[in-house]
Structures are given as C-alpha cells and as structure tokens.
Amino acid sequence: MELNEINYRISSASGQIAQMPKTELQLRGIERKFDLNDAIYTFLMQKRSEAQIAKASSMPDYEVIDTAIPAMSRQVAPKNQVELHLCPLVGITYTHRRYSAEGFPEQQDRRQ
C-alpha cells in the first residue's frame, strides 16, 4: 500500500468517527473495555482452576493430626490373655451348638 492510500483510509475513518454521536462513541468504548475485562477474567479463572487441580494432585490423601508419643503408647489389641481363654471356649460352644442341632456329618450320612 502506498502512503497516500493509508492516509486516505485514516482520514475517512476519522471522518466517520467524527460523524458518530457522542453517546455511541462512549458505548463503543465501554464495549471494548467490557470485552477486554471479560477476556482477562476468563483467562484468570482458567488459570485458577488449573492451579487448584495442580494443588489437589500434589497433596497427600492423609494428614497427620498429632504426632505419636511413644511414652504414652500401649498395646490396644489383641488382648492376649483374654483371647487365650475366650477363643477356645467360643470355638467349643459354636461347634457343640451347630452339631447338636444338625448332628455330626457321619450321622447325617447314615440317616440317608
């Protein structure tokens, strides 16, 4: 393009702008600012969501609330003495009740 043609376009555009009402010019300026702010807001929201995803993926699934104090620790389960006396008793009671109601497997074979 020649310099004269560019100057002609600039002057014609300036003439068109001068013919526009003042309120329309203000509206166009507001629209430009709105479009710019909207684009910036969308960009920042996208970056925010990406940062939240990155933060969530780098955080562990657990959190230590209080550290353990070895001096206060004690064995909670299994309680060995209770298990030594209770488990055989439970096993014998379960076996006795089951087979006393149904009979032993050898007895069931003879009944058939």
Report what the structure shows.
The chain is mostly helical. Among the domains are: 21-59; 78-112. 75% of the residues lie in helices and 0% in strands. It has four helices and no strands. It has helices at residues 3-19, 22-58, 80-102, 105-111. The chain is rod-shaped, with a radius of gyration of 43 Å.
Shape: rod-shaped
| Tally of separate helices | 4
Q: Which regions are unreliable across 5 or more consecutive residues at pLDDT < 50?
A: none
For the termini, the CA-CA separation is 110 Å
Query: Taking all residues together, what is the mean pLDDT?
Result: 81
* Radius of gyration using CA atoms only: 43 Å
Structural class: mainly alpha
Number of strands: 0
The helix fraction, in percent, is: over 70%
- What proportion strand? under 5%
Order of helices and strands: HHHH
Describe the biggest sheet?
none
List the helices and strands and how they pair.
Blueprint lengths: L2 H17 L2 H37 L21 H23 L2 H7 L1
What is the structure about, briefly put?
This protein is mainly α and 112 residues long.
Give the key terms.
single chain, 112 residues, mainly alpha, 4 helices, 75% helix
